[in-house]
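Protocol step 6 of 9: fold each sequence in the batch and record its structure tokens directly after the sequence line. For illustration, a two-sequence batch is reproduced in full.

Sequence one:
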Amino acid sequence: MTATFGAESTTDEVLEGIDLSGKRILVTGVSAGLGVETARALTAHGATVVGAARDLAKASGATAHVPGLELVELDLASLASVRAAADALVAAGKPFDVVIANAGVMACPQGKTADGFETQFGVNHLGHFVFVNRIASLLGPGARLVNLSSAGHRFSDVDLEDPNFEHTPYAEFVAYGRSKTANILFAVEFDRRHKAGGVRAAAVHPGVIQTELGRYMTPEVLAALTRNIEESAQAGGQAFSWKTIPQGAATSCWAAVVAPAEAVGGLYCEDCHVAELVDDPAVRGGVQPYALDGEHAKALWAKSEELVGERF
């Protein structure tokens, strides 16, 4: 890498001088925030971007300034919708150079997807798990998968015995942490399975940004989360600051098209660099060892296949 980027780098800074002409990139969650900015930045550098969203009318309005963006309907809370969207893309037969699994929900009240899964695990992990695996045939040598995770993965490891909180008291941020850990483990195992064919996968933490992702949080919950982030930043010797949306989308773009594939494959990135292992959940930065554990990733893959009734 010829340039060094950090927490304050923006999408335009990360992509400066990068020509993405001829590249076809899929971004989920293009109806707001990071998804819109990611699509805008990649398109501005010549990429053909396909955006996936649950609400096409909202996505169309949010991306009106993004020229040439193709929209597809994708409701990650419904495996019927996920499969229909994936099957349509496969039938079209147009390959992708990058898939950025950006969509998600955060700290929502306890609920279930159309298929009966706990909402955050179902939307953030299982929906993308089925969608990405179903379109994997469209990813050829040199392609990449980028899963958006979060420093919130430190709130909890996945629970393979009780993924839907049927026997565990529900807590919004525990559920969020489980889903974000799952995003990393999915990237780890997808990378292991596909790297021999030249396809790599990475997970990224975009940073702490004020977007629609926090729409379910009450002012009290948001205040408590902010205190937690500030305390964990201090524990890691870091000063906490909010990121702008262009800064938040920068790591996705960096991991997708800037960093060498072998430098990020199977790993977790933050602030436009590969994160260090940090075995202390009180520290916000870095990645918890359980999230990169290869055997753990295989176990989650098997459990996910069992839950969705489909083998990949």
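Sequence two, same batch, same settings:
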Amino acid sequence: MNKSLHPQALFRLSVLGELASRNQLERGETKKIIRELATKTYNIPNSNRVHLSEQTILRWYTNWRRGGIEALCPLSRNDKGKTKVSAKIQFALLQIKKENPARSINTIIKICEKQGLVAKNELSRSTVHRFLQNQKLSKRTFASGNTIERRSFVAEHAGDIWHGDVLHGPKIQTPDGFKKTYLVSLLDDKSRLIAHSAFCLGETALDIEGVLKQAVLKRGIPYKLIIDNGAAYRSESLQTICALLEIKLVYCRPYEPEGKGKLERFHRTFREHFLNEIDINKITNLDDLNARLWAWLEQIYHRQSHNGLNGKTPLICFREDLVHVRPLGFKAEKIDDIFCHRYARTVRKDGTVSWEGMYFEVPYELVDEKIILVVDPHTKCALRVESLTGENLGHVTPLNKHSNLCRNRQRPNNIPAPITKHGDNLVELAYQEYNQFYGNLETNKTGEK
């Protein structure tokens, strides 16, 4: 059973890039790739740093080879938030960093050593980094180059690389009035074939995941997926799906559309031959618009010759390379489960959990337990609950308060009587004392008479 993957593990897998996506590397190639990866900048989760050392990348690669994605999960520290650096050294580190925020950790340590504040090799890089990170001072700034080297490329085989992007579409009539549409497309780099494309009413991660699911069902699993750098593409759910399908995610740099030129070229063709020709007055709903889109793709676009394919059509080019396309295989049996979303929840006292304003009943013995709610986001249906380790704990059902009105409640068969540790309870003891006192008093009065 699948379980949620740690965001740090997903990030580390994306950093490994070519190291994780290639099955075999030549002698000395590993070191060369790691050196190149260490020169890049990264959006590191929960950190102000933008660079990774070669040693860090090598350690992640070694762990990944030994234990896969699970081995990339971070280990918790017992000394988190603490530092053994003295107050005097802390003050010096802050002053040195604030004087020049672009200073690296190595430079800061050397200045401390030159000033006689610490002995040589007394301060470690990790200690200084954690301290500056807690003070939100670990970020560095770098000057960018004046020019960017760009070269055209093409994948060796169909299915090696897919490109994904969103194009703004026309407004159509819906039950809620006119709504803007968005075209989500996935294009194969080698054949220019559209793995799948669909108009959606949004450009969220869920819309992108829906198109990706249909694409892999029809065209197999790509080895790499090059997508935009927007928030929707960086969602944890999309990264988890790609990790489970062993798809390497590659993000384009912001404001550099040249990195997805083949898909931009498709968008130009799409505007000229589809959007300019379609009669929007004949479109009654989103399904009607998508039906025309899929007919145009299969009957026209996929069967047109391309100059970039030496006169071949995308469909012929893709079919000629089918032997290299990675099939779903055994993953086809659990494809629905792979595209499910998982949410951590604590079961309420009435045996329910909530999701997007809806309540679901779970096995009552899970009350007050922390569980994972497994949801099919496309059908808005909760499927089951799992333990934090991925074990199936049972099905869930939508809450029906009217049915619960006449529902038999679970009760113990034999309710034991309350046990009094020291004889009778306080009320009985008070009653006995009262009777004894006033009973004796009445007896004395009677004797006097």
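Proceed to step 7 once all outputs are recorded. Observation for sequence two: DSSP finds 15 helices and twelve strands in the chain.
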